[in-house]
Structures are given as structure tokens and as C-alpha cells.
Amino acid sequence: MGNSVLSELKGKAPIGRLISLPRGHQDLHAMPVSAGYEIRTDSSYDWDGRRRGQSPFSVIQYTIAGHGNLRFDNREFRLKPGDTMLTCVPSNHRYWVEDGGYWEFFWISLNGEEAMRIQQAVLATSGPVLKLSQTTIDGLATCLGELLSPRVETPARASIIAYETIMLLYDDVFGARAIPAVEHRAMKRVVRYIDSNLSSALPVDVLAEVSGLSRAHFSRLFAKAEGMPPAEFVLLRRLRQATRLLSSAGLSVKEVAGLTGFADPNYFAKVFRRYFRVSPTEFRNIGLAAAIMPFSGEPMVHDETGLEITDIAETELLPPGDASD
Question: Is the pLDDT at 311 greater than 80, yes or no?
Fold first, then answer.
């Protein structure tokens, strides 16, 4: 079905849609921003990820014919037929067509907390150029056709298609590729180490050493195994432990902060509220019912190493004197 969708859209190219729908009462965790099919042949097509505003969104762009150019951090890529480019805005990247070039592609752009979280995990695992299966491409093409159709009239319907889009990426990158048993055991060893040392500094270098792998290989493998980068995983483990300790009698919020690796209780309260929408004290007063509240952290962004960090620096989660990673 996907190929027939692309054949139909090619006859209408250029075709695109900015998807702007009335917002409901609740924020939806995956929403489409735009979608389309284009053929570009000159240098007027040039996008810089640092000059597209501060509102986070992603671009999933599949090359059908010709080629495009991508500079991602300090690396350059030639995007060939069959390549899928994944970038998130804002970040240090640029993609373009040179004069006299030819780039035929379709794209889907998304935003929303869950959409961005999963796509950042994909970036951390596979980088910005993906080799997706034909089944996945056909699925993405079907989503594209839906987004360009008049049937997408409500935020809920649009969110369903956006979520299907990121689940196609998730299954292709994380679902179908089992990691070797030795590396799987190494990741489990790291998880046990994290859970046993939440009150201590847990920089990526130390976790890589525990795994016995290089930092870069460890970071990619961990994101593949756990579905998120090491820094995000550590933060969520700290917060999960904090909810358990807050439910126990006899510990102050300051003590809970220290036991979960937060040197500053005020900073701990800030991060806790950001994820649970209540303060640690309010959480304690609400009781165990608060444990079902979803995390609501903001999307992850990349640093220059390709690792993912939040806009709250990972080093701020470390005890005093251990904030050098």
C-alpha cells in the first residue's frame, strides 16, 4: 500500500500540509506538525536546525531518488535513495540541495513529549541516517497519505497517526534487532550498578567502564537495550527511588534528595515537580495514588558528543565534587 501511496503523491508533487488543528483540553504526547512529498533541484532548499525557533519538533525524511546533503554536528552525510534522515529541532544540523542537484523525498514532522523522547532515543542508537526496512517505509508512506488526506480533522485522529509513525521507527530500530547475549548481560550489569549506587555520581564514563565497553559503543548499546540514553535512564531511576522513599515514614525531603543523588534539595524539588507535576511534599500527602501519575519531562536534546541530555544538566544531578563527566 505504501508504494501505491507514493506513486499517487509523486503525480501531485510538490504537495504538503501544515497540520494545524484546534487544541483539546489535554496535551497529546505525539502530534504531527507537517507532511509532504517534494522534488527539489536548487540551493533554495536549505534548512539550519539552529535557526528554526526553540519549539521542539522532528523531521523524518525519506529519500526516494537523487540525493541530499546533511551535516549533523561535525559529520557529513550524502543522503541516497533508501536513506531516512531523522533530525530534531533545535539542534546543530543542516540539510540542503546544491544548485543543479536533484532530491526527491517525502517527510513527516512531529512534536509532543513522547514523540520527541522516542526519536531522541533512536538518534542516540542509530544516528541521523537510518536504514529502515521496506515494510517500515511502506508504513510511513501510509501514514503520510493519511496526514495529507482530509480525513485528519481532529487532534485525536492526528495523534493516532503521529503515534503510529514513531512506533514504526521504534519497532524497526529497537524491536527487531536483538543484541548479543554477552552485551545484553553487560547492560543488565550496568542497570544493577545504577540501582545500587543512586546516591553516588553516575557519569556515563563510569557506566561505560562497568559495562567493559567504550563510551560511544556503550551509549548506543544502552539506548538500544533500554529505549533511552543512559543519562535519562539514571534520572528516571533516581526519581522512581525518590517516590518509594517519600512513601516511607521518617525521611525528610532533604534526606530523600541526598539518598537519590541530588545534592541540592531545592533542585530535587524542581526536577520532581517537572516530572510528576506535584512537589515532593504534595506527593507524600497524596500518597500512593500519585505513583500512577505519568512522567511529564520535556524532550531530550543532544550535546556535541551525540549523547542526550535534558535542558537540566546531568552534572547537576551529581553530588558536590563529582560533577565532572
Answer: no
Instruction: Compare 65 and 308 and report the one with higher pLDDT.
Output: 65
Q: Are 64 and 6 in contact (CB under 8 A)?
A: yes
Q: What whole-number distance in Å separates Cα of residue 325 and Cα of residue 323? A: 6
The contacts of residue 174 (CB under 8 Å, 6+ apart) are 121, 122, 125, 224, 227
* Greater model confidence, 6 or 66: 66
Q: Is the distance from CB of 113 to CB of 274 less than 8 angstroms?
A: no
At residue 98, what is the residue type?
E
Considering the entire predicted model, what is its pTM?
A: 0.61
Cell numbers for 308, please give them.
542526550
Whether the per-residue pLDDT at 314 is higher than 70: the answer is no
Rounded-to-10 torsion of CA 18, 135, 38, 145: -40
Task: Identify which has the larger pLDDT, 50 or 176.
Answer: 50
78 pairs with which residues across the strands? 69
Within 10 angstroms of residue 278's Cβ, the number of other Cβ atoms is 15
> Quick check: 289 pLDDT over 70?
no
Are the beta carbons of 278 and 96 closer than 8 angstroms? no
Per this entry, what is the length of the chain? 325
Measure CA of the first residue to CA of the last residue in the chain; give whole Å: 48
CA distance 284 to 55: 33
C-beta separation of 131 from 176 below 8 A? no
Helix or strand (DSSP H, E) at 319: none
**What's the rounded Cα separation, in Å, for the pair 279 and 268?**
9
Q: Are 94 and 71 in contact (CB under 8 A)?
A: yes
Of 33, 165, 178, the C-alpha closest to 109 is: 33
> Within 10 Å of residue 8's Cβ, how many Cβ atoms?
14
Residue spans of beta strands (DSSP E) within 114-156: 129-130
pLDDT in tens, 126-145: 889 999 999 999 999 999 99
Query: Which pLDDT belongs to residue 24?
Result: 58
Rounded Cα–Cα distance for residues 234 and 186 (Å): 16
